[in-house]
Design brief:
Chain lengths: 94, 307
């Protein structure tokens, strides 16, 4: 039946030397037509030089309810940041 | 933390709600209705201008208008994608449009009578849409805000090409200038009604502002648009069809007359032949494309089976 085309997540590399970035999603019957749809939808104004499409159902995502458990422990480890270390002015550009 | 508390904290900190987050049912249903209506408006909006593609006065104007109408289709797709993150299916949204259970902006129920109307639509209708959409880039619902960023980037070309059509006509023969004036007369009031009823009549203003879905009230946005557009009309040498329009030194804004809200309500109710025609055209485009969708699906299945 129509309307049951799977959804694909679209990632576009804006120019050589930078990462692919998530741009949005398209519906398409297969990967090849998803690529064509993504090209037509997202890159009509030189927005990119390369496109990836990934079936949305293949994305494994962290649960928003786990946000605190996963990411908050980093907050009290400021010794991981260079600014934690106070150095004499002479070498502070280190 | 309770789910509701976390939602409230995110809103209070002016951060964004994302697709997988818990959200109140009312917040979700409000967004589904608003973003779907926005998506429907984009694809129905292809019709009044699309009709002018074969009649555009030059090859360059034809190419420009084709690009603009293609953008509107793309905006529809961005917005359907954003709606789907709220847990609805695109096919169901199209059914709701075709059965007229969900609305689209009633501005697209006005006909584009002349080539000048194409200019006025770009200048005024897209201008009003931009005024409305720029604050939506900061909407509290992340996927909607991000879709709006893309839409706004593309929309600026639409308004500029519309103004340029008006400018060309306004600098032309008396007949061309009259055409431009006629289009302004037809589109001014519908454009300022695009911001919706006055704040005193708007039921959901306060709640949607508190949720960060809306950032400015209908009347604030309307005033912005009026203030911005009047100098542009003066530059064109055209006359605004509003005798009450004058600069108010004290307020630092233009005063303007009262739109015909009765007409607005008639348009919102979708009375008359035009809304029926818009849906008929939309539905037949969908039905005529069914074989393409089925063929693509059959091809994909065949290749998947072979792999």
């Amino acid at each position: 039946m129509t309307g049951s085309w799977p959804m694909w997540e679209v990632f576009v590399r804006a120019r050589r030397g930078v990462d692919h970035v998530h741009f949005g999603s398209v519906h398409a019957a297969d990967g090849e037509s998803a690529l064509q749809a993504a090209r037509d939808l997202f890159t009509r104004r030189q927005e990119g030089v390369s496109i990836w499409v990934v079936r949305s159902s293949d994305v494994v995502a962290s649960d928003p309810d786990d946000e605190a458990e996963l990411f908050e422990p980093a907050a009290d480890k400021d010794y991981r940041f260079p600014t934690h270390y106070e150095l004499p002015a002479e070498v502070d550009h280190m | 933390m309770e789910a509701q508390d976390r939602f409230d904290a995110i809103i209070a900190a002016d951060e964004r709600i994302e697709a997988d987050d818990w959200m109140p049912d009312d917040y979700r249903s409000t967004l589904i209705r608003q973003v779907a209506q926005h998506a429907h408006s984009e694809i129905i909006g292809m019709q009044p201008e699309g009709e002018w593609i074969p009649r555009a006065p030059s090859l360059r104007r034809k190419a420009i208008l084709t690009a603009k109408v293609q953008d509107e289709a793309g905006h529809g797709l961005y917005l359907y994608g954003a709606t789907e993150t709220l847990g609805v299916e695109r096919a169901d949204l199209l059914d709701l449009l075709h059965s007229r259970k969900q609305k689209y902006s009633s501005i697209f129920n006005y006909p584009a009578l002349t080539w000048a109307d194409v200019g006025a639509i770009g200048w005024l209708v897209d201008g009003a849409a931009i005024t409305n959409q720029v604050p939506l880039c900061r909407c509290s619902y992340g996927p909607y805000g991000r879709a709006m960023v893309r839409v706004c980037k593309e929309e600026s070309f639409h308004q500029r090409q519309g103004f340029q059509i008006m400018l060309t006509l306004a600098e032309g023969t008396d007949e061309q200038k009259a055409m431009a004036q006629g289009a302004l007369d037809r589109w001014w009031w519908p454009s300022i009604m695009m911001f919706g009823p006055p704040d005193t009549e708007s039921v959901h203003n306060a709640r949607n502002m508190a949720w960060g879905i809306k950032r400015y009230t209908n009347d604030e946005l309307r005033q912005n648009f009026v203030d911005m557009t009047i100098p542009q009309a003066e530059l064109l040498g055209l006359t605004m069809p509003d005798p009450d329009l004058r600069w108010n030194e004290e307020r630092g804004h233009y005063d303007y007359g009262e739109p015909d809200w009765e007409e607005f309500m008639q348009m919102v109710r979708g009375e008359g032949e035009m809304p029926a025609q818009r849906i008929r055209v939309r539905k037949s485009a969908h039905d005529d494309g069914a074989w393409v969708r089925e063929a693509a699906e059959a091809y994909a299945q065949k290749h998947e089976a072979a792999a």
